[in-house]
Model the fold of this input.
Amino acid sequence: GAVVSQHPSWVICKSGTSVKIECRSLDFQATTMFWYRQFPKQSLMLMATSNEGSKATYEQGVEKDKFLINHASLTLSTLTVTSAHPEDSSFYICSAKLAGEHTGELFFGEGSRLTVL
Amino acid sequence: AQTVTQSQPEMSVQEAETVTLSCTYDTSENNYYLFWYKQPPSRQMILVIRQEAYKQQNATENRFSVNFQKAAKSFSLKISDSQLGDTAMYFCAFTMGGAQKLVFGQGTRLTINP
Done:
């Protein structure tokens, strides 16, 4: 149980285009999802917290207009990188928390590697 | 703000040896949760072990165990009888629980040599 699926696993796009990454909890309901960014050989940096039915909470320094997050249902959150630039190239990881679970344990997607040309 | 520090960027041991990864954290809270996650080359984050701060007993999961020192704010991971499949990045993480975010340390790259 507690499987999180991310799609696509890798994507290449041209500079200036927008890219959408989906994060789905396959067998549980997730009221809260988190989006992380990971640079090579570095730790995970939290970008935003996504709550179902409400606006995402962004971490300091993360541009909310560039990284659009939508959490339309209890099983789906999306991250859209708008007007992508080469510096947006990175590994993006989503994670989800079981509704009602109190320990804060997160279940992670497989990650999505974005390359902007 | 809570912070998590892993002071060992890289470690390397021989197969079957025991290795300990260090982690310290900073918080003024009394109730919280600590985790060790493993990120193998596939990049999929996998939970290794979890510790609730209110529990004095150290958590164990087969070959993995922790040494939780609450007063010292230390949370080290011991891997016994290490295996080649243990090669990965290991991240220590902290959360207040509930919907609170998970804060990660910088990570330790562990290599198990045959």
Summary: The radius of gyration of chain A is 13 Å. The interface with chain B takes residues 31-32, 34, 41-44, 46, 49, 51, 91, 93, 95, 97, 102-106, 108, 110-111 of chain A (CB under 8 Å). The CA atoms of residues 33 and 74 of chain A lie 9 Å apart.
